[in-house]
Amino acid sequence: MSRWDYLLGTWRELDVPDGWRAEIVDDDGVVLVAPPSDPHNIIASLVHRTLIRAVPEDLYILQTLGIRMPEIERLYMPDLVAMPESVVRDPERTPCPADEAELAVEIVSRSSMDTDRKKKLWGYAHAPVPLYLLIDAWDETGPSVTLYEQPGNGRYNQATTVSFGEKLTLPEPFDVDLDTSRFPLPDQWPTA
Description:
Blueprint: H1 3-13, E1 21-26, E2 29-33, H2 38-54, E3 59-62, E4 67-69, E5 74-76, E6 80-84, H3 85-88, E7 96-97, E8 103-107, H4 113-126, E9 131-136, E10 144-152, E11 155-163, E12 167-170, E13 176-179
């Protein structure tokens, strides 16, 4: 049995507490991720609302979908992911292949800064997921939203960043402006 098959088997057998998630984010194996805070959930809800109004009927916007990248031995559970209905409904493709996703969204928390900004950026680019939306209230230059596009050679070749409060245009198949003016600012996030 390969290392990847072992990790995936372990992930499938986990009995994860309600609200928690399990991911394979690096070479250390399976990692449990704590339930998100209220500000995190508010942002996820606002982004979900925007996306759901814009997507074609055959594209799902989901919050608890595991996506696999066997070539790099990773399995992420994005905060939001846009995945074709045909892939989600195919029991032979669980967890879903990351290269079928149209968009992955990660909302940075204090505990996930390094993972979301570096490890997942690298992983999604390698998958490749065409669009990676990073919502980062903890950005050193101020709360920001960055859309990474055009993956190639294991990295994204284009990035557009706006500050919280501004709009960011998401390209096809979404073709919608994401209004970030209602995103909670860092002083509204829990300190622990």
